[in-house]
UniProtKB/TrEMBL annotation, chains A, C:
It comes from Kribbella hippodromi. Residues 228-373 form the Acyl-CoA dehydrogenase/oxidase C-terminal domain. Belongs to the acyl-CoA dehydrogenase family. This is Acyl-CoA dehydrogenase family protein. It comes from the Bacteria.
Automatic annotation (TrEMBL), chains B, D:
Residues 208-340 form the Acyl-CoA dehydrogenase/oxidase C-terminal domain. SUPFAM superfamilies: Acyl-CoA dehydrogenase C-terminal domain-like, Acyl-CoA dehydrogenase NM domain-like. Keywords: FAD, Flavoprotein, Oxidoreductase. This is Acyl-CoA dehydrogenase family protein. It holds the Pfam family Acyl-CoA_dh_1. InterPro entries: AcylCo_DH-like_C (IPR036250), AcylCo_DH/oxidase_C (IPR009075), AcylCoA_DH/ox_N_sf (IPR037069), AcylCoA_DH/oxidase_NM_dom_sf (IPR009100). Belongs to the acyl-CoA dehydrogenase family. Its cofactor is FAD.
């Protein structure tokens, strides 16, 4: 057990900091529109690529550097510390899917462009009637010669409006058990028949999108993996969504807490023992999450694939952020409800879906009980 | 002792429930199509605007009736200022012995009277603080009531706005909170005593508590109905124990809040102002403590769809957030309750 | 809606207060042993009987006065206010069972003695492997001529050591669905083959008992109701356990809170805003429970039998008491763990089983979800 | 960066886990049959008593090893004063540079050294407060360590008891807290600096945190095993989502507490005392916040049987109650953390 950087890690961190000092992209946080944010993110992706910071933990043969997952965590942490835009997470996990399940031509075609940021990906998984129960998805892909014809309706396709390509899950065989009839595809978002429409969240900001698929023709060589292998591909992909990248959340959290402490002090609230205790508790929860994530990361470093214990981090993350936003409302409730602090209201509403997306809190508890604690299923 | 609604009160509830479905809001699009003046007229036709006018010194209807109406209108997300205008402004004018014509105006065409609130929403504002205060009322507010304590007594002050309200700042899409525009003011009626203000605050707290109970109860009903239809893993999500228990826990807090609000509402006209105020603070403390969680639980049961603008779930959450703050959140109420039980610090 | 006493209620209350002034039995709370407490309770039962306060809401034909359930609530409240020993609850609900399901000879034999306190009852329902799932009970009663022979093991038989008779549930038919094979019996606790042994609770105090039944011969005329009717009898009985009698808890709760406030003030804690808020919250929770119970009581007064809404009161009661004891430990934790305040430790441990007995919190939530809210079963 | 136990540390854990099953307590009856002197000998044979003795100025083992041992011994409900005697008394003697013979005695036959704690258990007590303080240690305690600040420096004081301890007041049936008997005292070793005391407090808090994690984890394991066997409504209760979620929620808090305790334990010997103390307070704050609830949830899963004296569930609850208080509960830690982050009031 050693929480310090190893020599290698320290060297990497120093190099990264020097690079960030020169190259960090600003303006993301205060961008006027989602479109502007997407443009900044794309530029930032390219810069990171030029700096050698995209796909750094991928194998060398696929354009990576084979670095330890620890370096990904440091990258997350330091870009957070430097107030950089978020790291392009989709590149990371869709790259994994391509490496593990792609054909050689697919890898050659997509991996370089994914690393460089020339292709921005979105994820076409969830549907109106397939959320927590993702395997119930209904979008159909029917083979027609050298193509598949896709019809369906996807929800919660983050960045759908700005993505170039989509990793799509569709049902190719309705006659087998639901997990076995799903296939993954790589689809150009400019293909005719695809319509993207924004989903506006409860606080009024357009944050994600729904995508309608109408007779969309997808060449068969853009199928990822075999027919029926889609579920396994999706599960692998999703597992790489969690884990060390949470560290990106942790630096955001630290900043939010520091801002809240400052705002509370300015309002004269930090003379109240109750407020002090609640702010200190928010600090404790953040630390507890950080230290749990470090343990998860250590498992990854020691070669274990991301597992169900990630559900524990997800629960802690949810609790952490939702509690922080509750605290902000409790301290600045009147300001928040009278339009003086729209930022608190925005963050509050943004904190609510954390217990829904990426597996709801209820699903996470099922996973912990049954797969981590080994409790019996009915 | 009978702590439930009697026949007449049940009939009133049923009538207002039914009205609320026609003048209330079911989704964001309704907000644009609802015509406030017509809605207000519907309330007047049912006699709901006169509940706190005095007939030979007694209010036309008691705190319990006000509670029933406030609860049902909130449940239906009725975007009309029943609470600030028809209940609280009318009550203030009645307490100050304002002229009948003034009262007629308050409940006339359009919701013309608003209240001046402190920027932290914890109390009525004083006239001297006009520029920093907020107006709680409908878009057609023409007069705003505030207090004035510059003399020996506390007096009611009426502002007449020189232009319509603009700049609605409210988080709640069905209730308005506005920046103060330019206005002229005059004293109205007689001085208001401390006991009268206590009684008025008790009415305010219990009515806002009723509003919160209304939205919590109706929000949960919707989520339960959804849980019967929405299928996941081959069965309605309402069959999962996790969803059942979330709904059950929420129901427990709502029923508990309802019991406290009933008592507080009854106390308004039946007990001494300080006892009524203690009951009202108790009810408001509890409602404020559970309302946000209740509406969050509802959003959670709805899952992804409950997080979107197009779904009405956030309407309830927003109204819960505002109601929690109006006249003080849980910690404000607890501090006051502690003062009565433990003495000052 | 009217929270004041009606004229009748006020008159009853005044008479009761005058009677209590003269007759209230003291010493229960500080009795040296459970045995002494049982003796005091028996004397108190007799006094109440002489005062006309036992079975007052029973029909006149069964020795009652046909008073409204409101009077039972007032009785609970005022005896609580006068620090009297608890009311003999078993007499109330076992009396109901006798009235509803007893034969005429049984009623004649048992009702007068139950009212007068000559018979103290205990309840033989739960078993080691039948707690929440009471219908799974295994104690067998086998018909043998004019008798039944009972064998089994009952748990949580409160007052088993001091009771004269027992309302027993036993399985008479193992071949029908579990709810249908249960029969109720009235059994003299002096019958050979019955052994009572104390159950010591987590804080070290013997609070209840387990009862071993070994070839206990019960005359067939002591069967209550028909064979197989035991489940229905038990459910009716249990439903009368809740409800207005909770008001007895409410006066106890008020006293506990007042004591805690006083102790906190003495220790100088009431200058802390946080402690003040927590004490005020405890007051709010107590009021909220009281007002909910009054609504439940009003349903009873208006003639509705006790229903599933009682589960809401049970949840509130549990929350109230467990939170109060948490607060006591949070304020006086060091005193409690170092033996300076054994009373707080005792009350804390006594507060834990509230979420287990009489239907666990999990069962209550099932009831609320399925029977009150009408949510679907699988 | 590697936040998990390495091979050696895993081996140590396994060895102590195994020891704990033989010297620990599985039910109340074991308490009478356990022979403390023999148990203590077993710890010594495994070298667990010397962890904090110094070898050329460095402790024989780091905070992480202490954490591992404390956690496993607590999990096994080992009724021996490992924490106060083998860890904290030894550490105090080492910090003060006490003589080797004194240290030999501390870890010799029987657990001879106890600590003097303030009556509220939040800190070591000062010699002047002897009569009102409590002794934390085993039944065979002969020497009690306290501090003295009557001179210019803080000094370590050693009391020699004139009679064996009696009057164990502890709620925890596996750890002793005793009234102070008559004793004579003398100063031991060199003055102790503020930084040394900070580091010592960090060790104390992280070790008590480890103790709490140990009992929580083991208590939950037991309840989960029970839930597999216990049948209700025709199926193991562990199949019910309500029970699964209760266990899952508890597991989340235990894993979270474990992560915080690991870091705090590592910091003890690796960071500056003030940073180590902040990490330790963080871990203790979290452990204290969740330990009671975790053990209550365990009692709840056990149902009726978990409420009885004969069942070991209450052992965990009792140890959680004591551990929560030792060196300050959550609110004590939060107040200190707030001081470092927000400044004084």
């Amino acid at each position: 057990m050693d929480y310090r950087d190893s020599a290698e890690e320290a060297e990497y961190r120093a190099g990264l900091r020097a690079w960030l000092e020169e190259n960090v992209q600003s303006g993301y946080e205060h961008a006027a529109s989602q479109q502007e944010r997407a443009a900044i993110a794309r530029t930032w992706h390219r810069k990171l690529y030029e700096g050698g910071y995209i796909g750094q933990s991928w194998p060398v043969e696929w354009g990576g550097k084979g670095l330890s997952p620890a370096m990904d965590a440091i990258l997350n942490e330091e870009t957070g510390n430097f107030n950089a835009p978020p790291l392009p997470g989709t590149a990371g996990y869709i790259g994994r899917a391509l490496q593990m399940y792609g054909t050689d031509p697919q890898r050659t075609r997509f991996l370089p462009a994914t690393i460089s940021g020339d292709i921005q990906w979105c994820q076409g998984f969830s549907e109106p009637s397939a959320g927590s129960d993702l395997a119930a998805l209904r979008t159909r892909a029917v083979r027609d010669g050298d193509e598949y014809i896709v019809n369906g309706h996807k929800m919660w396709t983050s960045g759908g409006q700005y993505a170039d390509w989509c990793l799509l899950l569709a049902r190719t065989d309705p006659d087998v058990p639901k997990h076995k009839g799903i296939t993954a595809f790589l689809v150009d978002m400019k293909t005719p028949g695809i319509t993207v429409s924004p989903i506006v969240l409860a606080d009024g900001s357009p944050e994600t999108s729904e995508v309608f698929w109408e007779d969309v023709r997808v060449p068969a060589d853009q199928r990822l993996g075999d027919e029926g292998e889609g579920w396994r591909i999706a599960m692998t992909t999703v597992s790489y969504e969690r884990g060390p990248s949470d560290i990106g959340f942790i630096s955001t959290y630290r900043k939010s807490l520091a801002e809240l402490e400052e705002a509370a002090a300015k309002k004269g609230l930090t003379s109240s023992a109750e407020v002090r205790a609640r702010l200190a508790r928010a600090y404790v929860l953040g630390e507890v999450l950080r230290l749990n994530v470090l343990q998860q990361l250590s498992l990854r470093i020691s070669g274990r694939p991301p597992g169900e214990e990630g559900s524990v981090s997800k629960q802690l993350w949810t609790h952490c952020e939702q509690e922080l936003q509750h605290l902000a409302l409790d301290l600045f409730g009147a300001e928040a409800v009278t339009g003086q602090r729209p930022d608190y209201l925005h963050r509050y509403f943004m904190s609510r879906p954390i217990s829904v997306y990426g597996g709801s809190s209820q699903i996470q508890k099922n996973i912990i009980a049954q797969r981590v604690l080994g409790m019996p299923r009915k | 002792m009978y702590a439930l609604l009697n026949e007449e009160q049940l009939a009133l509830k049923e009538a207002v429930d039914s009205l609320a479905t026609t003048v209330g809001v079911a989704n964001p699009i309704d907000l644009e199509s609802r015509e406030p003046v017509q809605g207000w007229d519907r309330l007047r036709q049912m006699g709901l605007l006169d509940l706190r006018r005095r007939d030979q010194g007694s209010p036309a209807a008691g705190g319990v009736e006000v509670m029933i109406v406030a609860q049902s209108l909130a449940a239906g997300l009725v975007p009309l200022p029943f609470v600030p205008t028809a209940v609280l402004a009318t009550e203030l004018l009645s307490l100050a012995g304002a002229s009948e014509s003034c009262l007629d105006e308050a409940v006339g065409t359009g919701s013309k009277y608003g209240l001046l609130l402190r920027p932290d929403l914890t109390a009525l504002s004083f006239a001297a603080d006009w520029p920093d205060s907020l107006v709680w009322g409908g878009a057609d507010t023409r007069f705003v009531l505030a207090l004035d304590s510059s003399g020996d007594d506390v007096r009611l002050v009426r502002y007449e706005l020189s232009a319509p309200l603009s700049n609605n700042l409210s988080v709640d899409l069905t209730q308005g909170l506005w920046l103060t525009p330019t206005a002229t003011n005059e004293v109205v009626g007689d001085p208001i005593s401390g006991a009268q203000l206590q009684a008025w605050t008790a009415l305010a707290l219990s009515t806002i508590g009723a509003d919160l109970v209304g939205i919590m109860r109706y929000a949960l009903q919707g989520a339960i109905a959804y849980s019967r239809d929405r299928v996941a893993y081959g069965q309605p999500i309402g069959t999962f124990q996790a969803i059942q228990h979330l709904a059950a826990e929420t129901h427990v807090t709502i029923e508990a809040a309802y019991g406290a609000v009933c008592y507080a509402a009854w106390c308004v006209d039946e007990l001494d102002p300080d006892d009524a105020l203690q009951a009202a603070r108790t009810a408001k403390a509890y409602c404020a403590a559970v309302a946000r969680t209740a509406t969050e639980n509802v959003m959670q049961i709805y899952g992804g769809i409950g997080q979107t603008w197009e779904h009405p779930a956030h309407f309830y959450t927003r109204r819960a957030l505002l109601g929690t703050q109006l006249f003080g959140d849980e910690s404000t109420q607890l501090a006051e309750i502690a003062r009565t039980r433990l003495g000052g610090i």
